Amino acid sequence: IVNEDDTGVNLTNRTRNLEVESCCSNALSYFNELIDKLKSLEKDENRMLVVTDDLGSGIIKLNYTFGALMAQANSHTIHHYAIINYILDRLNVSLDDKRFGFNPTTPEVVKQD
């Protein structure tokens, strides 16, 4: 999302950053860089973008609004949080945030007495 250019946003143009994946201080620096880039984006939710993506059948170009792209990024982030939450659960590590890894629209389980 932060790699927008004159042609739009290419979600397939990604590379692995092993330094970020293996070093907490590099990850924190990269995280802060991303925050700065996100803060500097033009935030008009109705602004049109051409988004390049691969939905499983090859690379395609789609018209998105900036708001729709942010919503997709949010949903994708929650998906990653869900994976982390599952791994933590299997390792018997609990978090104080019982909603971590769940989409805000997911109903909570209500325990009956």
Helical residue percent band: 40-55%
Q: Can you list the strand order of the major beta sheet?
A: 1-2-3
Low-confidence stretches: none
What is the number of beta strands? 3
What does this structure look like?
This protein has helices spanning 18-22, 24-40, 66-90; strands spanning 9-10, 48-54, 59-65. By secondary structure, it is α+β, with helices and mostly antiparallel strands. The chain has one domain. The chain has a 3-stranded mixed sheet.
Task: Give a short overview.
This protein is α+β, with helices and mostly antiparallel strands and 113 residues long.
Keywords:
42% helix, alpha+beta, single chain
Write the layout of secondary structure elements.
Layout: E1 9-10, H1 18-22, H2 24-40, E2 48-54, E3 59-65, H3 66-90
Parallel strand pairs: 1-2
Antiparallel strand pairs: 2-3
